[in-house]
Amino acid sequence: MIELPWASVASLRSGFSNEVIDEAGTKYQLWAIPVSLRARKKAARRQAREARGDSSGRTSLVDQPMRSEGDQIMADLRDLCEARAKATGSQGEPSVRWAWEIMGPAVAGAVLLAVLIALG
To answer: pLDDT tens digit string along 34-45?
Structure first.
């Protein structure tokens, strides 16, 4: 498990995957936030259609630029990082440790699978 205080975040970026980079230049992948190139293309097409005027007569209720859900989440995280970086609880160094609460059940499942295969 990685604990990264807001004050130690140098940047958040999104390409083919979402990444956070700390002050030391270490890059961490954000696996919990999916990147969908298909959703990005869909949002870009929708925004282009809005820019040239939709011929179907529909109007948009949203004034902000169209983004995919993952890109919107990353934008929200950037805003949150800027807002929380100066807070007292956001100070500290990044820490990395093994997540035993995840590893224990995974190992138990692997042992059970090995037993079932051996008996089966």
So the answer is: 899 999 899 889
